[in-house]
Amino acid sequence: MNIQQVIDDISADVRARLPEMAGEVASYIPALAEVEGEQFAMAVHTVDGQSYVSGDSEQNFSIQSVSKVLTLTLALQRYGDTLWQRVGKEPSGTAFNSLTQLEFEQGIPRNPFINAGAIVTCDALYSRLSAPTHHMLATVRQLSGNPRININQRVSRSEYQHRHRNAAMAYLMASFNNFENEVEEVLKVYFGFCAIEMNCAELARTFSYLANRGVDVASKRRILAAKQNSQLNSLLFTSGLYDAAGDFAYRVGMPGKSGVGGAIIGVVPGKFTVAVWSPKLNEYGNSSAGIYALEQFADRLKLQLF
């Protein structure tokens, strides 16, 4: 099937529906609240290096929680299975910024894709890297093929200024001895990761290794061991869209990760990664148009992982 035609058709469909589609841009981060909500982009990057784009494909956006996949990837490179002593592998069943569950489970976050889990994973990275932000940017620039990718400092500062709930989670983990570094310094790094900016085509290319048994499609460099890559995709399938992961698995049927900037990545192992971006979010913090587009994409291409 012609992938370009499929995503062009979906893009046109979404464009027609966007004005009436439910959802609002993220408002709890002021810099994100200013983004125009009725935008949409879609991109596919195949394991043989082909790229297909549609919609607002040149528009940059902050990837937000999609960055948690990269944080986990870098941490797994350095810790392997010992990382799971500090963070769990189970779906949360609660909001991505829940404090209640963290308190009940004595400072061990349920998984690395909720905020507490990503923050403690970032803390682990901070312990092993002398310049974690520099290392992350170098990694993203290589994987995306764009050496100019950078952090939107305005978004990063805005998130840090409104850090109170995330800081509460970090200090709570510290109270349970599950934090190794200065909380405020780790949070600055964490928000910097979230504020990395790229476009939809670059996002799909960045995560090509997830569809290619842990090997970056462009450089042929191994990013993760094949087993680690499979395990990461399993975690994305069960936990990548917070407490809407089950609905996403049912409707779309692929591993995925969302961010409140409006991006979602999806993975079809052995075939391609697909990225969508549209800033209007549903009640779970996932892109309304993005979910719809990925469901249509899976239906049109008859993608069945099971």
TrEMBL record:
Gene3D superfamilies referenced in this protein's UniProt entry, alphabetically: DD-peptidase/beta-lactamase superfamily (3.40.710.10)
GO molecular function, one term: glutaminase activity
Catalytic activity: L-glutamine + H2O = L-glutamate + NH4(+)
InterPro entries per record: Beta-lactam/transpept-like, Glutaminase
The entry's keywords: Acetylation, Hydrolase
Binding site for substrate: 65, 115, 159, 166, 190, 242, 260
Pfam families for this protein: Glutaminase
Enzyme class: hydrolase
EC number: 3.5.1.2
Family: Belongs to the glutaminase family.
Oligomer and partners: Homotetramer.
Protein name, UniProt field: Glutaminase
Encoding gene per record: glsB
